[in-house]
């Protein structure tokens, strides 16, 4: 990522447009400066014997800033190549002193002659005095030169700061994702070890679905966000493993509005929430447990809900702890949402009046959506654990098991 004031290397229409945009910005800045000084000159001489017309004031000052506008790209080039930094200042400072003095001498000579011309004294001017007058007036030009250099450095430092923040944020997100993988793998392997002697067929099916899950995870390992359709495919792999473990004690249901299936969501955002619902809700029941996952559009946001019919959250302390993030999976979920969306997200865990708990996520809607009035696609029954999905299925829209 380059600073606004840097010139890109290479060709291409895109790069040419960027260069022209930078030149247009420089021209705009100096045009505003010229207009400001034109008004100052006009009102300064207004009502005096040397009263000057507004048109002549504009011609004088706008001509004066032309040389600044034309040479600013050269100054920015020098500022970029010879940055005054701790490692390079011994080389950069002499270059700027020499080059800056030469450029400013040209600026000063041009402006002195321009002032003399517009004051009507050019014919009487003694050219032998020009070097002395330039020397006496070069301080203003040097100030402008160093202002341009400082602005270039400030823009570059800001750009580096933003790039550093972005890299740190991406590293933190990646670290949070890597924490989820061992957490899930530990639980999955523990479940397989519990079944490997009592039910080898079920353990074999769990291993197969775990392999599918890991393959899908590795295929999108570098992505922080994936389409909801792909996220639900991940979730189906996990639920196949969970249903194999719990047998008749667990049923699941996934429903998503068709218009949000191509919207992007944080990668692996649903799996730790569903795992938490099964572990702390369904597994505590003596009877059959049920987990529902719903995805729908809510205005300009995407709403994801995970509901279970477990015993719900304990009163008081349990609810407060849930709002702070819960265990590893939920704490990482909250941290990832904060990193990706800042404060533009909603994360809530609450009890359901009829029993159980519900986790609600809302964050900005990104990606393509169809019309909100689109009809739901027909239900697609989830394949039994270990059995391949029917050919041609594009991913779950509504599935029950």
What is the terminal-to-terminal distance? 48 Å
- State the total count of DSSP E strands: 8
Tell me the β content: 5-15%
Helix/strand-derived category reads alpha+beta
- Along the chain, the helix and strand elements come as HHHHHEHEEHEEHHEEE
Mean pLDDT: 79
Radius of gyration: 34 Å
- Name of the CATH homologous superfamily of the largest domain: Histidine kinase-like ATPase, C-terminal domain
User: How would the global form be characterised?
Assistant: elongated
What can you tell me about this protein's structure?
The chain has 2 domains: 13-166, no CATH class; 196-400, Heat Shock Protein 90 (2-Layer Sandwich), CATH 3.30.565.10. Residues 1-11, 317-325 and 370-397 have low confidence and may be disordered. Strand 4 and strand 5 form a beta hairpin. Helix 5 (200-219) packs antiparallel against helix 6 (228-246). The chain has 401 residues and is α+β, with helices and mostly antiparallel strands. The strands form 2 sheets. A 6-stranded mixed sheet has the order 6-7-5-4-2-8. Strands 1-3 form a two-stranded antiparallel ribbon. The protein has helices at 13-45, 54-81, 89-118, 130-195, 200-219, 228-246, 271-280, 317-323, 328-341; strands at 225-227, 250-256, 264-266, 289-298, 301-308, 346-351, 357-364, 398-400. The longest helix has 66 residues, at 130-195. The chain is built from 9 helices and 8 strands.
């Amino acid at each position: 990522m380059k600073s606004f004031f840097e010139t890109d290397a290479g060709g291409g229409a895109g790069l040419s447009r960027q260069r022209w945009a930078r030149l247009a910005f420089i021209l705009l800045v100096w045009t505003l400066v010229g207009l400001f000084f034109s008004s100052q000159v006009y009102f300064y001489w207004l009502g005096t014997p040397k009263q000057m017309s507004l048109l002549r004031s504009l011609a004088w000052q706008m001509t004066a800033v032309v040389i600044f506008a034309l040479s600013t790209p050269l100054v920015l080039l020098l500022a970029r190549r010879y940055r005054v930094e701790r490692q390079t200042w011994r080389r950069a400072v002499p270059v700027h002193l020499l080059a800056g003095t030469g450029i400013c001498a040209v600026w000063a000579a041009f402006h002195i002659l321009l002032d003399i011309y517009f004051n009507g004294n050019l014919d009487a001017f003694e050219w032998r005095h020009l070097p002395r007058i330039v020397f006496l007036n070069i301080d203003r030009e040097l100030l402008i030169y160093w202002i341009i250099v400082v602005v270039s450095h400030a823009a570059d430092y800001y750009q580096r700061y933003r790039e550093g923040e972005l890299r740190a944020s991406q590293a933190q997100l990646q670290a949070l994702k890597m924490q989820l993988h061992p957490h899930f793998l530990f639980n999955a392997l523990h479940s397989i070890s519990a079944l490997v002697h009592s039910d080898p067929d079920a353990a074999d099916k769990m291993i197969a679905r775990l392999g599918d899950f890991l393959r899908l995870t590795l295929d999108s390992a570098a992505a922080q966000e994936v389409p909801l359709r792909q996220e639900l495919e991940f979730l189906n792999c996990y639920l196949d493993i969970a249903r194999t473990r719990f047998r008749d004690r667990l049923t699941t249901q996934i429903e998503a509005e068709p218009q949000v299936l191509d919207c992007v969501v944080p990668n692996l955002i649903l799996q730790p929430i569903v795992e938490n619902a099964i572990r702390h809700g369904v597994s505590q029941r003596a009877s059959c447990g049920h987990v529902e996952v719903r995805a729908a559009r809510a205005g300009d946001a995407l709403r994801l809900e995970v509901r279970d019919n477990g015993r719900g959250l304990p009163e008081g302390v349990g609810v407060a702890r849930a709002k702070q993030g819960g265990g590893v999976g939920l704490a990482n979920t909250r941290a990832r949402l904060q990193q990706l969306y800042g404060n533009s997200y909603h994360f809530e865990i609450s009890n359901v009046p009829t029993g159980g708990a519900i986790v609600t996520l809302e964050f900005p809607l990104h990606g393509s959506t169809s019309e909100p009035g689109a009809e739901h696609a027909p239900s697609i029954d989830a394949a039994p654990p270990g059995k391949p999905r029917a050919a041609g299925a594009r991913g779950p829209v509504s599935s029950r098991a």
